[in-house]
Automatic annotation (TrEMBL):
Residues passing through the membrane, by range: 72-90, 102-130, 142-163, 183-204, 224-246, 267-292, 312-334, 346-368, 380-400, 407-426
Chain spans, region Disordered: 1-21
Keyword check for Transmembrane helix: yes
InterPro entries for this protein: DUF4153 (IPR025291)
Keywords annotated in UniProt: Membrane, Transmembrane, Transmembrane helix
Protein name: DUF4173 domain-containing protein
Pfam family, one: DUF4153
Length: 511
């Protein structure tokens, strides 16, 4: 279909006739809600047969090995199978950035297989979702990083049609597809034979019954439903990833256009005043920032809690808001002349350097607070977040030196994932337990209720506590995991149950 001008009406003077294909209208093949500049739709494309078959096979394996509600090795196995099929069946090899993204995603998915801390496992899974889909979608802008994690919810319409066109290829030529009724009958007979004869063998031999009970998962109604859902999720992930590596959207085209820069004084004056404030704070408060124990003890009426709490959270907000200010300045500042670029480097560089000092101050305060009052999950995580913000300031400064930040969005995302992996590498709950037990051995003070409520990651540290106390850890009441829900921390921990409630009440009520 072509448009050769306004037929039947007067052609406006000075405009050439419009020639070429018109975009498909709603309901026509190739129509898409996305701009063709961003993500065109090929109405004739169909999935390769190997991709569909591999997706079905991986879906079956995933439904047997992966339980989304349990932190286990299933996440890692499912991730390895999905990436293997997505890139193993594609016509190209992963790029270096994609290899890095794949490695980070699988490393994050490995955390639930090693550690048992629920909060850490959930954070790693969220980070794996972000890094994994950003790897498949691609893009260099902040828009791509923000849109990529939500793109899977928009894939089903495209992927279902893409895979549906491959259905005829799944049936060998010269053969007729079996009728649905006969397929159902064969499956019913097969299941009946397995249930009847398997049940008889299990009743006849306790050893065989034990093997069947360990190898064959239960098939309760809710379990069957969950496995069907997992099968659908895995198939959708494989087909969605396979589609994206072949027809990736150009999300960078959606990024806002570079706006006309504002006059130099409009951004330089506010940022310069802010830099002066930062420098003044760092200079005047140098003794407070790095005084540590001596400053706390020598200041009348100042306790560890006041020293850390009154400063840490404010400094954390300072770090976060400073990144927002920098992003606005970089957006509106001009770079046309050498003087503009030089001034931008000086002012933003000063902001980044002083912000790193503020970050160090915040971490120092929280560290002193933990040394005095004990470690906790929240305190460890806020130190990790503040450390990551410090790395982001360094990245922004490096980008400012070269006046290019095309690599910055992905670098921020990847360093965030690396920070989370470093937190997992130190086994935070084990670290928390060790430090609190150290404090208990020195002072006799211990929040036993909090310590005994942590996951099996703390099991080695509890060996240093009195026997009556460590036997009251709540995780001892958990049943051992089945083989498909393997987790290293839970596997090596003791699950022989806790003493009666009254024997543990004294420890679980300690504050």
């Amino acid at each position: 279909m072509t448009n050769q001008g306004w037929h039947g009406t007067h052609q406006p003077p000075g405009l050439p006739p419009l020639l070429g294909p018109l975009p498909p209208r709603h309901g026509e093949p190739g129509w898409t809600m996305w701009s063709h500049r961003v993500w065109p739709l090929d109405p004739l494309a169909r999935a390769p047969r190997r991709v569909v078959v591999a997706a079905l096979v991986v879906g079956v394996l995933g439904s047997a090995l992966w339980r989304p509600t349990v932190l286990s090795i299933g996440y890692l196995v499912a991730g390895v199978m999905i990436f293997a099929v997505v890139f193993g069946t594609s016509e190209r090899r992963p790029t270096r950035v994609e290899w890095l993204g794949i490695g980070l995603t699988l490393a994050l998915l490995a955390v639930p297989a090693v550690l048992a801390a629920q909060w850490l496992g959930v954070l790693c899974l969220v980070a794996a979702w972000l890094v994994g889909w950003c790897t498949l979608v691609g893009g260099r802008t902040w828009t791509a990083v923000a849109v990529a994690p939500f793109l899977p919810w928009l894939l089903p319409a495209r992927v279902s049609a893409w895979a549906g066109r491959a259905t005829p290829e799944l049936i060998p030529h010269g053969s007729s597809a079996p009728k649905l009724g006969r397929v159902a009958a064969v499956l019913a007979i097969t299941v009946a034979l397995l249930v009847v004869f398997g049940g008889l063998f299990a009743a006849a031999d306790p050893a065989f019954a034990h093997v069947v009970g360990n190898v064959v998962p239960s098939f309760a109604v809710d379990d069957v439903v969950s496995r069907v859902l997992v099968f659908g999720m895995v198939v959708a992930f494989v087909l969605g990833g396979g589609y994206l590596v072949r027809f990736a959207p150009r999300i960078d085209a959606m990024a806002p256009a570079q706006r006309r820069p504002v006059p130099r004084w409009e951004w330089a004056i506010p940022l310069g005043v802010l830099d002066a404030l930062f420098v003044t704070f760092v200079v005047v408060q140098a003794a407070v920032l790095f005084g540590g124990h001596d400053h706390v003890l020598e200041t009348e009426g100042l306790t560890y809690a006041e020293y850390a709490r009154q400063g840490f959270w404010q400094l954390l907000w300072v770090s976060a808001l400073t990144l927002l200010v920098i992003s606005v300045v970089v957006r509106v500042a001009g770079r046309a002349s050498g003087a503009d670029r030089r001034l931008l480097r000086i002012l933003v560089g000063t902001t980044c350097v002083t912000s790193v000092v503020v970050v160090i101050s915040a971490i120092h305060r929280m560290w002193l607070y933990q040394q005095a009052y004990g470690f906790s999950v929240q305190r460890v995580m806020v130190v990790a977040i503040e450390s990551w913000l410090g790395v982001v300031f360094v990245l922004v400064a490096v980008a400012g030196v070269g006046m290019t930040g095309r690599w910055l969005p992905r670098a921020v995302l990847f360093t965030g994932a690396m920070t989370l992996l470093m937190v997992a590498a130190i086994n935070p709950e084990r670290l928390i337990a060790d430090r609190n037990v150290d404090r208990y051995e020195l002072t006799g003070q211990l929040d036993a209720e909090y310590l005994l409520s942590l996951s099996t990651d703390v099991d080695p540290a509890l060996a240093r506590l009195p026997e009556t106390m460590r036997q009251c850890a709540r995780y001892r009441d958990d049943a051992p995991d089945p083989w498909f829900a393997f987790n290293l921390s839970r596997a090596v921990a003791n699950h022989d149950g806790t003493p009666p409630t009254d024997e543990c009440a004294q420890w679980r009520s300690t504050s």
